[in-house]
Model the fold of this input.
Amino acid sequence: MRRPMVAGNWKMNGRRGMAAELAAAVAESAPRDIDVLLCPPFPYLSTVVDAVGDVGVTVGAQNLCAHSDGAFTGEVSGEMLAESGCTHVLVGHSERRSLFGETSAQVASKFRRAQDAGLVPILCLGETLDEREAGRTSEVLDGQLQPVFDEAGVEGLARAVIAYEPVWAIGTGRSATPEQAQETHAWLRARVSRESPEVAAGLLLLYGGSVKADNAASLFGQADIDGGLIGGASLEADSFLAICKAATAQQ
Ligand code: PEP
Done:
């Protein structure tokens, strides 16, 4: 049985006071029978780690450097994140791919580096609207996954999470329907199963893209959707907690 996870990606929002308050509110009321993860901006990681304390809510970063040390001005390594109290890190979020030009090969290097630093990578994958409408969704996802298989092997996915985030659904208010999301999640699980049925069976597959309190239950009720990666709705404690509750109800 896979334990559901709900992760909040705060992106580049808020200030320290908001980070502390939001984290404390989530920590106070988050359900204890699912995994709840908060991914604040880098400068607020330690604030959030302190605010959540030891109630079981964990903290992740939104990105990491593909190297552990050295002359990489402006970058942050996985080791630094682990030392700051992170357990997880997002890799390959669509904004990193589209705005910062990260390739699937670079994302795969970051995936591997995260694991070498003792972090659980959350590998974000997804197709654009044009790609979906051209019937290329599985081809695109395969192209994003293959470098990870090449870099880390299927065993790498035994210590990772995948977040399927259709680009057209992120921040648009237009979520995938539960059926569309389930179809793609089932494809992803079957794709991993071709490499290892055991890894596929245990793999957490999160859905991300305009998840809100009112559509979370129907998405999380699908057989291959194990929780969500939440952007906008994670910036407000009540909506994020309602989404967490929806994941609990699906167990
Ligand atoms: C995200 O940024 O990963 C995301 C899913 O955003 P939103 O929930 O706002 O669509």
Observations:
- The chain has a mean pLDDT of 97.
- The pocket of phosphoenolpyruvate is lined by residues 9, 11, 165, 170-171, 208-211, 229-233 (CB under 6 Å).
- The radius of gyration is 17 Å.
